[in-house]
Amino acid sequence: MADARTKIAELDPVWSRILQEAEDAVQAEPLLGGLVHSSILHHATLERALAYRVSLKLASGEMSEQILREIADEGYNTDPALGAAARADIVAVYERDPACHRLLQPLLYFKGFQAVQAYRLGHWLWEQGRHDLAYFIQMRVSEVYGVDIHPAARIGRGIMIDHAHSIVVGETAVVGDNVSMLHSVTLGGTGKEDHDRHPKIGDGVLIGAGAKVLGNIEIGACTRIAAGSVVLENVPPKKTVAGVPARIVGEAGCSQPATSMDQLFLSKT
Fold this sequence. Notes:
Number of helices: 10
Distance between the termini: 64 Å
Radius of gyration: 19 Å
Strand order of the largest sheet: 3-6-9-12-14-15
Order of helices and strands: HHHHHHHHHEEEEEEEEEEEEEEEH
Shape: globular
């Protein structure tokens, strides 16, 4: 057993740490034994655990857990990028969310992380041309987690969505790598225009709670968008924008705002 655990740690340090944290959690709180075993310790890989967790949460009278599990297993088996993105996301949550103290927390409890992984499966289905199944996943993610991400949207790795309530991401939106956003963020359109109509968010952007980014505009890398802002125009890289409508109020304040999660800025008076 020790040799097997050492091999897992060498090949997949994220999953190895989750397994150890799961065993510690059962020792500390035996009443959670059933949950932790069925969700984590019963599975050989993070991909299998994710397939179980997502299918369990999204199952309904309209589609069973077994069918959803088969879809998820197919996705993870077919596209290794899904598992790689999940690992980047779970590490991002651990590193950026001060309420996250263990890697197992997002997998078991955080709806932002779980919703993004379900979206990733929906996006995989969309790319396979299985649009109706992708729409079904979108619907269930919205109903279960309060997160509405169109399966055609393109989202990078290392994504952290804190609290995650009332997140909306439109069909033609693009989100880069290592982006952080808080609850009630909308990446939407400005009307009934068709085709490419949603924002393009650069790498390392921090989007504050309640911010609305609307239209086919570009938000430069490592920019900060203040809470409650309404962004309607392109934003250069490494700036801070705030207000309704949003205006540039200063520099980003650091090289990686999405990682530092620093949402304070000094106003110019």
